[in-house]
């Protein structure tokens, strides 16, 4: 039997049992569509996180207390930061640029303007933050080195905080209260969006020295250092860590790069995507079992037809190919429908839901290959059984 003839016979057989064929394909359709959607959600989440990490600032190195372990994120984490504001000079000497280092103290506090009050994040920092983190000021200005040195009570608002407190009015020069202390607004930061699900626009920036006095602290939570180039980041991170550990021999520090952060998040997302894809693939396995079952039923129903073909000269291989093509055609059509539904579902999720989704070019290709492979795998046994039928016995069957 020629390949084209086998395809025609398989197509006629599927047309002859349309409802049964559609129900059999349903498991394959659901499995393929689910896998495409899960992979797309995983890819979309990875892209969103990458953009958020990159949005923190280019060539960024975060210096934190404790040992950053990608295998165990809680390993060797100190109970409290041991970094001091004076350590900024040490790190500036390592990088060779005092303006490439900024300090951070983070806390939460009630912020009030007139009768409007909200709880927001308060960031204590210095004059270098806009350059290190690429945070331009939309209106007004950021505080200066003099403001930091003199512990002035001045603040720069995130765009969301400014909108909530002043309802669209210009807040520059106005007064706000942070944790019961009055501050004068110097400016408003440009809109930044979310990072790891936390809005960077719903915050208030004050001088780091003022934040330490406000919250009763004598430490800083972390330092951020901007490397001169992307190629310099790995070497700079090692030198920063070594400098601090030489200064404090009994303490551990880490210089965390964007690559390390993305690597950890990527591993977690990859694991979750793999688990979800495996769960979705169970329906594909069930669909394959259904294909095998239906093909066995088809062999039994067409026993006399098989006997007649073999009596007219069809070889065992011809009969095997006929039924194998039928199984592959069944799963391939289901795979195409599943891919179309999966891609459409992913695009709809990305557009109309908070879930990010990005269809990778290879996922529909792999899905189609998998669906065809399911037809081959689960169609071999029924096809071999059909090919081995004895023509005399087959013709005598009821």
How many structurally independent domains?
2
N-to-C series of helices and strands: HHEHEEHEHEHEEEEEHEHEHHHHH
Count of individual helical segments: 13
Helix residue percentage: 55-70%
User: Numbering strands along the chain, what is their spatial order in the largest sheet?
Assistant: 2-3-10-5-7-6
Based on secondary structure, the structural category is alpha+beta
Largest sheet: 6 strands, mixed, barrel
- The parts where pLDDT drops under 50 for at least 5 residues are none
Can you put this structure into words, describing what you see?
The structure is a single chain. The chain is of the alpha+beta class. The chain has two domains: 3-51 and 272-396, no CATH class; 79-251, no CATH class. Helix content is 56%, strand content 17%. It has helices at residues 3-16, 18-55, 87-95, 129-132, 145-149, 159-166, 208-215, 233-247, 258-301, 303-311, 316-352, 362-387, 391-396, and strands spanning 60-65, 101-113, 116-125, 137-140, 154-157, 175-178, 181-189, 194-195, 198-199, 203-207, 222-226, 253-257. The protein has a six-stranded mixed β-barrel with strand order 2-3-10-5-7-6. The protein starts with a helix and ends with a helix. The model has no long low-confidence stretch (mean pLDDT 83).
């Amino acid at each position: 039997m020629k390949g084209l003839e086998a395809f025609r016979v398989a197509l006629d057989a599927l047309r002859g049992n349309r409802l049964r064929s559609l129900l059999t394909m349903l498991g394959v359709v659901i499995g393929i569509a689910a896998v495409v959607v899960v992979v797309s959600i995983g890819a979309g989440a990875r892209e969103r996180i990458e953009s958020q990490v990159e949005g923190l600032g280019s060539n960024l190195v975060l210096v934190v207390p404790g040992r950053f372990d990608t295998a165990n994120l809680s390993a060797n984490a100190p109970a409290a930061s041991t970094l001091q504001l004076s350590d900024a000079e040490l790190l500036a000497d390592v990088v060779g640029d005092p303006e490439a280092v900024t300090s951070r103290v983070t806390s939460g506090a009630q912020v009030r303007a007139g009768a409007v009050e909200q709880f927001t994040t308060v960031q204590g920092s210095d004059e270098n933050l806009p350059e290190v983190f690429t945070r331009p000021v939309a209106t007004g200005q950021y505080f200066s080195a003099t403001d930091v040195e003199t512990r002035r009570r001045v603040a720069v608002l995130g765009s969301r905080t400014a909108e909530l407190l002043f309802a669209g009015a210009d807040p520059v020069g106005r007064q706000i209260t942070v944790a019961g202390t009055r501050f004068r607004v110097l400016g408003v930061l440009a809109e930044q969006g979310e990072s790891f699900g936390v809005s960077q626009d719903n915050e208030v920036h004050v001088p780091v020295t003022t934040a330490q006095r406000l919250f009763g602290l004598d430490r800083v939570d972390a330092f951020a250092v901007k490397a001169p180039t992307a190629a310099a980041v790995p070497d700079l991170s090692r030198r920063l860590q070594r400098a601090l550990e030489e200064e404090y021999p009994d303490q551990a520090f880490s210089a965390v790069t964007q690559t390390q952060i993305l690597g950890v998040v990527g591993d977690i997302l990859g694991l979750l995507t793999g688990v979800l894809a495996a769960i979705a693939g169970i329906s594909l396995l069930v669909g394959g079992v259904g294909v095998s079952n239906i093909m066995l039923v088809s062999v039994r129903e067409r026993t006399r037809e098989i006997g007649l073909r073999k009596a007219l000269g069809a070889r065992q291989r011809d009969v095997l190919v006929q039924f194998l093509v039928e199984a592959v055609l069944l799963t391939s059509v289901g795979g195409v429908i599943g891919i179309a539904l999966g891609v459409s579902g992913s695009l709809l999720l990305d557009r109309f839901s908070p879930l990010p989704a990005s269809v990778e070019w290879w996922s529909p290709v792999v899905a189609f290959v998998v669906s065809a492979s399911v037809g081959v795998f689960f169609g071999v046994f029924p096809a071999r059984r059909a090919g081995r039928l004895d023509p005399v016995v087959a013709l005598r069957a009821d």
